[in-house]
Amino acid sequence: MTKAISILGSTGSIGKQSLEVIKTLGYVEVKGLSTNTNIALLEEQIREFRPKKVCVFDEKKASELKTSIKDTSTKVLTGLDGLIEIAIINEIDSVITSVVGTIGLIPTIEAIKAGKNIALANKETLVAAGELVTKLAHEKNIKIIPVDSEHSAIFQCLMGINSKEDVSRIILTASGGPFRGRTKEELKAVTINDALKHPNWNMGKKITIDSATLMNKGLEVIEAYWLFNVEINQIEVVVHPQSIIHSMVEMVDGSVIAQLGMPDMRVPIQFALTYPERKPNNFPKLSLTECNDLTFKKPDLETFVCLKMAFDALEKKGTMPAVMNAANEVAVEKFLQEKIGFLDIARIIDEVMRKHKNVACPKLQDILQADVWAREIANNLIGR
Prior knowledge:
Blueprint: E1 3-8, H1 13-25, E2 28-35, H2 39-49, E3 53-56, H3 59-68, E4 75-78, H4 79-87, E5 94-97, H5 105-113, E6 117-120, H6 124-139, E7 144-146, H7 149-158, E8 167-174, H8 184-187, H9 192-195, H10 205-213, H11 215-228, E9 235-239, E10 245-251, E11 256-260, H12 266-274, H13 305-316, H14 320-336, H15 344-355, H16 364-383
Parallel strand pairs: 1-2, 1-5, 2-3, 3-4, 5-6, 6-7, 8-9
Antiparallel strand pairs: 8-10, 10-11
Helix pairs in contact: 1-12, 4-5, 5-6, 6-11, 6-14, 10-14, 11-13, 13-15, 14-15, 14-16, 15-16
């Protein structure tokens, strides 16, 4: 059976791997693609996959692309309106949301309203507006299939469970990033190149820095809370450097169900695209006899305070998670621009969260306003 999809963020790491998976499946049609500014790669994707519409968020780059692909029938859109249009194309069944940051929130909401299933790789959507998004998906009978390897693992572990009451804990595994085991003192002088050397995964720059601070795991904690309808005290993080066990679910009787596999994002992407079926592929397979020892440790919350801040934001709920996320996006961007140090990322997030007057039970407009406010405060803190 042929499926039709759009990919928001097709030139990023997840987007490129999604297209690789689509080629191996052979029965998924690509109707929409998007990028921020990478029109050279987007043009290659247009000529290979022949989408109906594409969006280039940057207006100037969109104009350049229109000229370079004028020999094709693909329509070029731009801005947030363009992203939304890509997300609600009539012919599509699903949207892979792999843009980075809260820019993915509004297109995801509009896709759900239009009856499109969501393959979710944009964790910021549920971090900022988890209650709104999951409630809307339930009302529209829309499936949100997680693409993150950890949430895909939990999703798969829960497939064979009869009742929520059978679940004792959700255990999210973390590689620990490139700085696992280091002290705060040792992190003062780390460089961008140091932070971008993830030991296991090939990811985009923003998510790689988030992994280095453990904020990525914090965002995943919040995402798991909304995806799996558990209590905060039922979510635990363990550091598993080998990234073989992607996450686990502990049952009330003490049984633990785990999902294992090679650290290869194409596997959860394919699962999200083919769910509820499974399809064969030629990706590398796990050999248990070749695995090194599998180890587990508690995360160091004294050094990697971003993870603790994420748990704190989730406890407060309201607009606090959106504020934390927005401050983190600004701080990571400034670190990548060499305007602040690595440890400044956590300091800036903490200061912004302390200044915020939390809004309980926020509407979408409250969340969007909190996002704008947090970015302004974070930029002011960096600029002072």
